[in-house]
Design goal:
The protein is 28% helix and 27% strand. The protein is of the alpha/beta class. It has a single domain, classed as P-loop containing nucleotide triphosphate hydrolases (Rossmann fold). A 7-stranded mixed sheet has the order 1-7-6-2-5-4-3. α3 (89-95) links the parallel β4 and β5. α1 packs across α4. It is globular. The protein binds adenosine-5'-triphosphate and magnesium ion (MG). Residues 43-44, 62, 82, 110 line the site of magnesium ion (MG). Magnesium ion binds at residues 43-44, 62, 82, 110.
Length: 161
């Protein structure tokens, strides 16, 4: 597990840029990222900056009410999910996430704990916490591809705590 100090909003954005910069080339399957942390810890901020850096067209809106937003990317597609308001397994089924698990898709999931075992295994877990006025990010990989992604992104980002 790696911990990064994100004292300011720009640091959350910088982490997203490092992840975009080091996005694994041509993985065999979708890349899945779980974004966890309390309300207002920066999950959407991170997802938005990452998607924009990968070339998604603005604006990136929080999927708070729609639960899912889709974006074309120059290489593949971005799927941004927020399960905070998920009402059950049926609603999850209707989102059709299973069909998104293909090469070229980046699937970013806020509040994955709302769907627990019904989601695919993530390549990367990012857990955000409030720390003073800033945030701390805890990151760990869930796959070999995620492991390389995490290592290279952290090397790109710089200091670790
Ligand atoms: N490192 C940081 N330091 C200080 N403020 C930050 C940092 N990162 C993000 N923020 C701010 O925290 C707020 C986080 O809002 P955001 O919508 O991204 O949170 P969220 O985790 O997606 O919340 P929700 O669970 O409601 O979806 C924003 O106002 C953003 O500017
Ligand atoms: Mg959010």
């Amino acid at each position: 597990m790696s911990r990064l100090l994100l004292p300011e909003l720009v640091d959350t954005e910088r982490l997203a840029l490092s992840l975009a910069q080091q996005r694994p080339p041509d993985p065999k399957d979708a890349l899945v990222v779980f974004l966890q942390g309390d309300l207002g810890t920066g999950k959407t901020t991170l997802a938005r900056t990452l998607l924009l850096a990968l070339g998604a067209p603005a604006p990136i809106r929080s999927p708070t009410y729609t639960l899912v937003e889709h974006y074309p990317l120059p290489e593949g597609r971005g799927v941004h999910v927020d399960l905070y308001r998920l009402r059950g397994a049926d609603e999850l089924e209707q989102l059709g996430l299973r069909d998104e698990l293909q090469a070229g898709v980046l699937l970013l999931v806020e509040w994955p704990e709302r769907a627990a075992a019904l989601l695919p295994r993530p390549d990367l877990h990012i857990n955000l916490h409030i720390a003073g006025h800033g945030r701390v990010a805890e990151l760990h990989a869930g796959s070999a591809v995620g492991g390389v992604w995490l290592r290279t992104a952290i090397a790109d980002f710089g200091e670790q705590i």
